[in-house]
Amino acid sequence: MDNMEIKQPTYKNRIKKLLIENPSEILLTNKYKSAETLVDILEEDLNKFRYDSKEDLNYLQKIFGLIGKLIDGDEVLLKGLYDRFTYIHNFINNLIKSRPQEMSHLEVSNYKLLQRIIEEMENTMLQIYLDNPVEYNYDKEAFIEYIIFTLKYENIVKEAVHKFPHIVNSIDKNNVSLIEKVLDAYLESLDEYLSEENLGHIDNLIYYGKVLKIIVTSDKVKIDNYSIKKMIDKIKDFYQSKHYTQNRHKEKLTFFINDCINILTNSCEEETIDYLNYKYEIHSKFKEAHNLEAKRIYLANKKILTPTTKRKIYTFDGEGAFELDDGLSITYEDGIYHLGVHIADPLSYIGFDNILMDEAKRRTTSIYVDDKCIPMLPFILSGDTISLNVNKQTYCMSYYFDIDALSGSLIKFDIKNEICEVAGNYTYHQFDEFLNKGTNDLELFNTLMLLTNVSSILKKVYMENPLFTEINDHNHQYESTKIVESAMIYTNYNTAKYFDERCLPFMYRCHSMSPKNMDLLNTLEENLMSKDKDMSKEIIKFKELMQRAYYSSKNIGHFGLGIDYYSHVTSPLRRLADIICGICIRKFYLNRDYTKEDIKIVTELIDEMAEQINQKRTSCVDYEIQYLRLKNREY
């Protein structure tokens, strides 16, 4: 006996013993070795699985929860285990399919164990690969449905379909497949879109069409011909049940029905710019009625006006900008900065009850793509008559701030409707050049110096989150962009603050962050600030999770800017929201003689327009992406 070698337990045996008796201690072991070992145990025990076996394998359910904690975002380890996870998942599925037709009580118990194991496996895989995007139900089908129908982030949907085709292929307890549910959502969105006299919101319709395409074109999702035929029959029944009197509604119904059938049969026509314009309701040209009205306003305002301010006003924009809607002026006297932010005022030229404003309400924004701009207002107005071009008198809404240079406190704030004359139009590049190398124009140089000095005070009212900056691609190529931006944010902040403190109707730019994501934000922010590793993947992931900013008549502050009040008043030539704020300023600041009925009417207008802008925004952004994709393909 003394001469016999005592056999030591293997690492696998020690891990298996812990798994059965004290699984939490496995988390204290070598994570790489233990994760691999747990998969070895799972694979080995499943290979010995028999429906009539009395061996207790319930401990296998614990494996995936432990693996999830051991991996904890480790991409190297995750990549190494991915193929094994896929193999084991298929193996368990085959075991489930091969169950006896008539099962004893023991066989039923073992069959249910397999179901629980695969449930644990799928849920843990979802957590690992999608990194807990937000709060969700851990049931796998409920989670996938949450991603598609509630979260509505295209990239996460694409990732889920790619990595979990077995879940996408599954059917629920009512024998309804996931793709059928997506089709139902598409048809419901189409019905809502067509229910409005001037057509409704298109975002959901576009989104569900893209989800259908993601599923159908996936090489991992298998949809049988019978299911395709069944869905096409449903589409045709929907089409036959709809009766519209307006040609536009009939045309849109026919377009989206055929578009959907093409998606399901994977026979989509090659997309063109004209196709995109029609689908997204983007009109690069204005109707003749709009052009004639714009020409009338242009001619009516060609006469020379007398400026009502002697301020030296300059504009600073990017190369090639043509909608010049903001200018700056500044003087300094007795320790006080006198800052002027002068904003083009389309309402002074057009008024709100005008077909051009009706069209602006439909468009909601100018759309900037690689090689052109699709303006919200006709170019003859937005790029000429109303634009703050040099040596031209223009109606403006001027925001004046008297700021104590020592304390940074705001001494006086005022808004005036004025006629302004711009002394010069410059680019950000020129701003920086003049500041660094000087210029013979001493008034201009003095303005640049004062703007540079005051910007440090203006920036104190907000604290832009660095991750929010990265996500929103605030790439400040020039120092001057930060200076001009600080003046615009300061203006938007103080105007919103004025209205909120007096409980007057106003359109606020709101942004919030779910408490559930705060820990993730703090971690990513620390990594971003340290700059010690590539943050691109983390930023992209968080971009999908961060709630979008939106417009509302109710102020909740702006998380991304770290600010309690925010609005958009500084770009009315390219944003409808700024025009709505201009109405509020006219009604409740410049006028002051308002009634309760005025408050009610304007609040209703804000709510209506906020919903319109919020709904339109996603499709506008998506149009820009699709447009650039087509243009790049052409080249």
Can you put this structure into words, describing what you see?
The protein has a 5-stranded mixed beta sheet with strand order 1-7-6-3-2, sandwiched between helices. The longest helix is centred in the last third of the chain and has 39 residues, at 596-634. With 635 residues, the protein is of the alpha+beta class. A hairpin with a 2-residue loop joins strand 2 (326-333) and strand 3 (336-344). It contains 25 helices and 9 strands. Helix 4 packs antiparallel against helix 5 (105-130), helix 7 packs parallel to helix 10 (203-217) and helix 14 packs parallel to helix 17 (379-385). It folds into 3 domains: 11-130; 178-269, no CATH class; 288-512 and 547-634, no CATH class.
Give a brief description.
This protein is α+β, with helices and mostly antiparallel strands and 635 residues long. The protein contains 25 helices and 9 strands.
Query: Could you report the average pLDDT, rounded to the nearest whole number?
Result: 87
Integer-rounded radius of gyration: 31 Å
* Strand content range: 5-15%
Helix-strand makeup class: alpha+beta
Oligomer: single chain
- Overall helicity: 55-70%
Please summarize the sheet with the most strands: 5 strands, mixed
Count of the domains: 3
Span from first to last CA?
82 Å
For the secondary structure, the number of strands is 9
- Tally the helices: what do you get? 25
Q: What sort of overall outline do the alpha carbons produce when their principal axes are compared?
A: globular
Q: Which blocks of ≥5 consecutive residues have pLDDT under 50?
A: 1-7
Strand order of the largest sheet: 1-7-6-3-2
